[in-house]
Amino acid sequence: MARPRLTWLLSLCAAILLALAPSVHSQNIIEQLVNPGPLAKAHAKLEATCSACHTPFSRETQNALCLSCHKPVAADLSAHTGFHGRSAEVAASQCRRCHTDHKGRDADIVFFDPRLFDHVLTQFPLTGGHIGLACVSCHAANTKSRDAPIACAACHGKEDPHKGSLGSDCGSCHVSDNWRKTGAFDHSKTKLPLTGAHAKAECRSCHAGKQFTQLPLTCIGCHSADDVHNGGFGEKCQSCHATDLWKTVTFNHDKTQFPLRGAHRAIACDGCHSADPTKDKLPLTCIGCHQKDDIHKGTFGANCASCHNETSWKQATNFNHDRTSFPLVGRHKTVACADCHKSKDFKAAPVQCQQCHQDTFHKGRLGDNCISCHTPNGWLQWRFDHDTQTRFPLTGAHRGLDCHVCHDKPVTGKPALDTICGACHHKDDVHHGTFGQNCERCHTTVTFQR
Fold this sequence. Notes:
mainly alpha, two-stranded antiparallel sheet, 2% strand
């Protein structure tokens, strides 16, 4: 009980002295009287200035005084970095809880035990090959632990096979588990993201000799030996090919001025394009490429597409015959072009019926205007109406007669036959003309006999 009583007496004396003579000098004397012990070597120069670490009768301000000198620790606490800034226990404690002084010049006021220290609370958590290393491997003697380097190159610079050409961020490619592995590198963040077959290629297939800079970024830069076009299509291989499979052509010709249709799709590129397509000025018209194939010798002009299509050159499926002077109707629609167009000059085809259809039945006796009786739907179907189209309606026995019985001479545009009975039946007139030629006054066409 002697020491607490002595401390109380000293405090009482100090209070009395301060009250009687409140000077800085008297305050220093009192502080020296109540000093609990010598400071550690690191704080020895502050031993005569208690106010550097203490505020009389106010322990709450001590932390602020500590941090005013230990600025790196204050910065860690403010930014929540480093050991002091990451540890929740430190954040909730006073500095004096761990770092107690006044225990003598040789006292250890840090109380650091490497065996109990959790490196996760630092800026450099130990992973992979770093786990199990002795502290002195990274923390040099007589150097603050917080000053140990955290960059890979700072410790492994001499082991860098790239000689610094790739910078100091080794962790962007390598992992601490195995230095030779490059699993951490993200190639998609480079100027050449790996896609298709490139993603499966080994690093050394492109980075020969550990060369990682100043490498070509174009297809032709690596694959010039594989270019079957020998540079004829330029260097933008990706405009036609994909990285998944080099032989697959992805070029969409439909986006050009000449979409490929029909037989054009099966033609190889070099069938139209020269060795250097970038210099090609290919025609877009049929005749521009197929002039030698024009069997019409230009007589139909250059618009081949008006008759032909890309599916089959020999079929003129696009031609509209209805726009000509001879529209196709009836059975004419099923007739092959060559049946009427005997020559390659389609303009010379006949348009009159008898020019194609030899008249073996009427033998020209009814003239050449076949369509006045017949239709293209069938030659045996005829539409001539004698009752309405002539001045001699057929009645009675006349209706069953063959045309040639009366029309034994070619029919012209003018009336060819007389319509009176005697014109045809004068030989049958038993009256020998005594009653005139107006036979219908007594007879009918049903029967000549009355």
